[in-house]
Specification:
The complex is a heterodimer of chains A (565) and B (345). Chain A is mainly α and 565 residues long. Chain A is built from 26 helices and no strands. Chain A has a single domain, classed as MetI-like (MetI-like fold, Orthogonal Bundle), CATH 1.10.3720.10. The longest helix of chain A is centred in the first third of the chain and has 36 residues. Chain B is of the alpha/beta class and 345 residues long. Chain B is built from 16 helices and eleven strands. Classes of the chains: A mainly alpha (565), B alpha/beta (345).
């Protein structure tokens, strides 16, 4: 209240002393309004025009929607998508969110390595993840060879849900870890503990409610990422004849008897799903303003049972990441596909081929595209995040989420329809598609962080005479920095292994790493696919290692817990 | 509150940068912007010098390595003419062309796909041109259509993991309970090559073939490649897939064997053709003509495909091959899929 009064007083005083050549409205537009204008322009260019152009294809073909609803398969597909995506979201929140909270509150041994392990799936294209799970656990997989264990039930809804869940864990972890770092709430927790609340009461009455915006942002992201994924159901759901919306879209695209109309009409289903998810998430979001930044983590003194957390997480990582990775490795290393993966059959031929081919240049191009997309989208995410907080701004985050909610192929078609005349044949059109598709990935965590900050810190800084930029830099930026980095990392890593968008938009000589991976898959050469996926994973891992080893960067991302600060 | 002003400026600058770089990379496209028909002449319009040096773009449903090998072989026999391959799956390439047709014109000059059932659709959408090489007259009537011809052939065959007993000899053998839980096939919903199998095999092995396969706990996967890999790894003992899937696996030494079914393998032509409006480009004609020369056919055989013309050791001389009418297959598509779905749900 005091700051608000101070602010009010400041403007009262400042107004007369300032010559005020511009009317108040113009000044408002020049300051606050400019972000509206930029975000509106960005949405118009990256979302409204391409997606509108896409929908026009479906709308102008009469009978397409009717044809879709007449297909009994479609209801099963919708149910399949909802069931697997909900399950995957729950699992991601449990594992990723649980780890984020545990790392913040407890002394967990080997935290850095556990963090790296939790983030590993974000480095691997979903279909490669699904592939490596089958290579590890199903018939003729690694465990079948070694121990005679074959988990063929993984083909079906259960396996699809689990692998989609593993794939979303990094999103949940990054968003929540960043939120915890800014949200703190440690002072409130201390107060509660001092008042006699036990740790669990603390968790449920203080920590989780404070994290609600971040939890909702993470759930929404995880859900629509799982719903729009095709790679995992392609490998695990199709063999069980368990349809999802994306496999139906792929089927319509493979055999597009009505051209683009039916896959596009099917994609609208996912748009509706995204709209519903964000409407619900928006309704549930409470905008508690921050109690203050730099809340120091409340770390409970190390206790023996904290080791249990390490063991449980390490067990999860072993099952979800390490063994599938070994499955992938065994296929990439075994000289002849189909032979048992024993050392006598090992060779580096596939890896050598993977490195010698077009992969090098493609990786450089992908890195450039990802770097640009992540950087632009972080700025765009901050702008959209702040606009979304204003009156009528909720629509912004919903609109931004639409390209993220539909499969990559639909986005690629939309971008090609919208910009093909002008930007065809370069990296620019791929970059535009990345910007459109992954804006939500940057905006969600940043928006969640911004929603915690009320207008007071900014007003206080302005009242103290700071310029607008300086006030933002000192009052807002430190609080959202971890989330901005989290968003940057999410976008960068996701772009790096993007497959479908680039395969529809590349031209010869401008391949991205995704095109190289898809080409190997197209050839049906699993050994080569595994080798390229392995190289990609190792390269990204090599880039990520400095990140995990740098205490400062890790701190900025909110990965490490107390004792570090 | 001008807090976002600087951030906004950065965003605008970044977008501006993107626009600048695009201006550089897409040089020559202004002509394509003003008139779609100019864009329709594709690479010739995009870079005027390309016409002189004779460069065309081919959308090919090959692997990038095979696409490059084919392009290099063509360039070797036509030193002044170059082919650039955009390689992807048939479905992705068709989607891409349909989209491009609505966004300023198809960028390909010629196509070489892996599924003949998409060709009538491409023709009706005004994407497929009309040029067919003179040598196509030697092809059987069923292995070509309006505006396209089979550049090489796929065959739906049976493969099995080395050591499997009994060894299947014909389609009907797959209904043997000895293979219960050991068979894998592709899904006709996702590809026309498998659609031909789903349509033809019941004619050879009995109308209840798929019902019996279901009783044998057959596994249905999305692609014929998966069938090949699963049989090679031993995850499944027997599969129905394409000969072109079998050959690279066998070449690398994977434990997999091929069976040319006694009652007949199901042939699928790999359709090639010109893109509408590009038929008069001499390089397009040269490339399509070249595909049916014995030199190109030999090159295709060395890449692991069965030739469309001439003999090779790719297909055994005594192998029986059925005749598939691809025009009919397309019109019966939904009936075939319905019958398949009725069995497998």
């Amino acid at each position: 209240m005091t700051t608000r009064t101070a602010f009010g007083a400041a403007t009262e005083v400042a107004a007369p002393t300032h010559p005020a050549p511009l009317p108040r409205l113009v000044r408002r537009l020049a300051g606050e309004g400019i972000s509206w204008v930029v975000v509106a322009a960005g949405i118009a260019v990256l979302v409204a025009w391409p997606i509108g152009r896409l929908l026009y294809e479906a709308v102008r073909t009469p009978g397409v929607f009717h044809q879709i609803w007449a297909d009994p398969e479609i209801l099963r597909a919708i149910r399949g998508t909802v069931v697997t995506s909900l399950g995957a979201t729950a699992m991601a929140l449990l594992v990723g969110g649980g780890a984020a909270i545990a790392f913040w509150r407890l002394r967990v041994a080997g935290q850095q390595w556990l963090t790296a392990g939790l983030l590993l799936p974000v480095l691997v294209p979903p279909f490669v993840s699904a592939l490596s799970v089958t290579q590890a656990y199903t018939a003729a997989g690694l465990l079948d060879h070694l121990l005679g264990i074959r988990a063929d039930w993984l083909f079906g809804p259960a396996g699809t849900t689990l692998v989609l869940g593993v794939q979303q864990v990094p999103i949940a972890f990054l968003v929540l870890a960043a939120a915890i770092r800014t949200r703190g709430g440690a002072d409130a927790e201390r107060a509660a503990r001092a008042a006699g609340a036990n740790p669990l009461t603390c968790l449920f009455t203080i920590t989780l409610p404070l994290l609600r915006p971040a939890l909702l942002a993470a759930s929404a992201l995880c859900f629509i990422a799982a719903a729009s994924d095709f790679g995992v159901p392609a490998v695990l759901a199709i063999p069980a004849r368990y349809p999802t919306v994306t496999t139906e879209i792929y089927r319509a695209m493979s055999f597009s008897s009505s051209g683009l109309a039916s896959p596009v009409a099917l994609s609208t289903l996912l748009i509706v799903v995204a709209l519903v998810v964000f409407a619900v998430a928006g309704r549930l979001t409470n905008r508690i303003t921050a109690t203050g930044r730099h809340s120091s983590p409340l770390v409970v003194r190390g206790r023996p049972w904290h080791g249990v957390v390490s063991v449980v997480l390490a067990g999860y990582l072993l099952v979800a990441n390490v063994i599938p990775f070994l499955g992938l490795l065994s296929v990439a290393l075994t000289r002849v596909y189909g032979e048992s993966p024993v050392p006598a059959h090992w060779g580096l031929d596939h890896l050598r081929e993977a490195v010698s081919g077009a992969a090098g240049g493609a990786l450089a191009r992908s890195a450039l595209l990802s770097l640009a997309a992540a950087s632009v989208l972080c700025v765009a995410g901050v702008l959209a995040g702040s606009v979304a907080l204003r009156r009528g701004g909720r629509i912004v985050s919903t609109l931004i989420a639409i390209p993220y909610a539909v499969p990559g192929s639909a986005v690629a078609v939309a971008i090609l329809l919208a910009f093909g005349r002008w930007f065809y044949g370069g990296l620019v059109i791929i970059e535009l598609a990345y910007l459109a598709r992954f804006w939500a990935l940057a905006q969600q965590p940043i928006g969640a962080a911004l929603s915690h900050i009320g207008p007071d810190p900014m007003r206080a800084a302005r009242a103290c005479g700071a310029s607008a930029w300086r006030a933002w830099w000192t009052a807002i930026w430190p609080s959202i920095r971890p989330s901005v980095f989290a968003g940057w990392l999410l976008v960068f890593l996701t772009c790096l292994h993007e497959l479908t968008v680039s395969s529809l938009l590349y031209v010869p000589g401008k391949e991205t790493i995704g095109v190289v991976v898809l080409n190997a898959e197209l050839a049906g050469d699993l050994a080569a696919t595994s080798a390229i996926a392995l190289v990609l994973t190792l390269v990204v891992l090599a880039c990520a290692v400095p990140l995990f080893l740098s205490r400062r960067l890790r701190g900025a991302l909110g990965f490490s817990a107390g004792g570090m600060w | 509150m001008k807090r976002t002003l600087a951030a906004a400026a950065a965003f605008v600058a970044a977008m501006g940068l993107a626009a600048c770089s695009s201006g550089k990379s897409s040089g020559g496209s202004p002509s394509a912007v003003s008139t779609p028909s100019a864009a329709a002449s594709s690479s010739a319009a995009a870079s005027p010098s390309a016409a002189a040096s004779g460069k065309i773009t081919v959308y090919a449903a090959l692997t990038s390595a095979n696409g490059k090998a084919l392009a290099d072989a063509f360039h070797a026999s036509h030193p002044n003419e170059t082919v650039e391959m955009v390689t992807a799956g048939t479905g992705a390439l068709v989607t891409r062309m349909e989209t491009e047709a609505k966004a300023g014109g198809v960028r390909a000059d010629a196509i070489l796909l892996a599924d003949p059932t998409v060709m009538p659709q491409l023709a009706s959408e005004g994407i497929l041109g009309s040029y067919v090489p003179a040598a196509a007259s030697q092809l059987p009537e069923t292995m070509k259509g309006d505006g396209w011809f089979g550049a090489f052939n796929f065959y739906n065959v049976i493969i099995y993991h080395t050591g499997t007993t009994p060894v299947p000899k014909d389609w009907s053998d797959l209904t043997n309970p000895a293979y219960k839980g050991k068979i894998e096939i592709g899904d006709p919903s996702y590809s026309g090559t498998t659609l031909a199998m789903a349509a033809e095999v019941p004619k050879l092995a009995g109308a209840d073939f798929f019902t019996k396969l279901k009783a044998n706990d057959v596994k249905i996967v999305q692609s014929t490649n998966t069938v090949g890999n699963d049989v090679a790894s031993g995850a499944r003992a027997v599969g129905i897939t394409l000969d072109s899937v079998y050959r690279p696996l066998a070449k690398k030494g994977s434990p997999v064997q091929i069976v040319w079914p006694a009652s007949g393998a199901i042939p699928v032509p790999a359709p090639a053709g010109a893109v509408k409006g590009h038929e008069d480009n001499p390089v397009v004609k040269d490339f399509l003509d070249w595909l049916l020369t014995s030199e190109a056919q030999q090159q295709l055989v060395s890449l692991g495909y069965a030739p469309a013309l001439g003999s090779s050791n790719a297909v055994p001389v005594d192998a029986k091959v059925v005749t598939v009418r691809y025009q009919d297959l397309v019109s019966q598509r939904s009936a075939i899929l319905d019958a398949f779905k009725k069995v497998f749900g």
